[in-house]
Amino acid sequence: MTDWAAVRARYPAAQTKAYLDTACKGIPPPEAVAAVEEFCRFVRESPLPSVTDETIVVLEHMTRARREAARLVNADETEIALVESTQQGLYGAADLLAVGPDEHALASDVEFFGTVLPWRGRLRLVAHCRGRPEVDDFAAAIDGRTRAIVVSAVQEVTGALVDLPALSELCLDRDLWLIVDGAQHVGPMPFDVREIPVDVLAVGGHKWLCCPFGLGFAYVRRKRLEERSPSRPGYFALDPPPEGWSVYLEDPRRTPVDDLDFTQTARALEPGGTGPYMAAAALAECLASLNALPGRFDRVQELVALLVDGLDRLGLDVVSPRDRRSGIVVFDLSDAHMLVDRLAGAGVAVSLRYTTGIGGIRVSPYLYNDETDVERLLAALT
To answer: Where are the beta strands (DSSP E) in the chain?
Structure first.
């Protein structure tokens, strides 16, 4: 069994407050901090005879981060692109999809505004049902010009878990793209792209992946990679020359218009220039830590259940759905703004989020939390 007290001890912020706001920003594990420090040491000391070879060495951080991301969602490494944020991953999806002037995507009217931003002007909103998007409502809104459904797997203002298996089946039946913002899902809950086929899954790193700001990942289904190519691939989206980059760069026969091939992997969605190697070193360690930690999904649900029970005892209005629970619990009351300030003063970190007339105080327990954090929150509410 996992020693959750030992896990908690690895995260300094969890020692100083009831850190119940991972839906806003996670706490990096010590391995990520060490990776950043080691990266800086490496580039400062320049330990190899060839500086070109040092650049190739730091490229391996990107490779490892893609590999660990693939493990996390049961994808193939070739289906993973590293992106600076969920938003960048979704813009990559929009580039691949290329919605025409008379076509549109569907999204819920409680969707996070950044999730739908790439489709502004070619977007139709579907009304929510008590704070969550329902598959039947999406199905009723589809017409001959619908190209995609864009949805957050977990809604950021309610914690509502979308019925992705049913939504995936709907999109497969109607030949639509299913583009998923997984920022509030991947990490505290399992996500297997083989069990739930989606076309694109974009996940920022700084929330539940617990990475310092700057890098996340996107999964792209192989079929979509075979159908379409990104419109702006960079030079690191090229397949390495047969003799390797070092030999190629030193070859006097090299020209600016050599016939090099662009990769057919998801890596083509990456910006393609000199990359965020330090962030990749941190992300790889964060993902490896998650992949090596059994029981975290059950642990999150234990804390969520404890929190909901406590809120019910206090007679508070729990906005989050009772079924299909996620790692987010939202409750609302008339003086929510004042209460969030009071909680902060009591050393309890939460967020306040609303959209389209729904939302409230958002609580998001994670692997470094324990029962005392929930009790501290509940005590501050009385």
So the answer is: 18-19, 80-83, 104-108, 123-126, 146-152, 177-181, 200-203, 216-220, 317-318, 329-332, 348-349, 351-355, 358-363
Strands, E assignment, 143-270: 146-152, 177-181, 200-203, 216-220
| Single pTM value for the model | 0.94
CA-CA distance, 293 to 71, in Å (whole number)?
13
Complete domains list, the chain, with CATH:
4-20+294-381 (3.90.1150.10), 51-291 (3.40.640.10)
Q: Is 32 within 8 Å of 212 (Cβ atoms)?
A: yes
Dump pLDDT digits (tens) for 83-124. Answer: 999 999 999 999 999 999 999 999 999 999 999 999 999 999
- From residue 288, alpha-carbon distances to 2, 25, 227, 295, 331 in Å are 16, 18, 31, 15, 33
pLDDT band of residue 70 (cuts 50, 70, 90) is very high
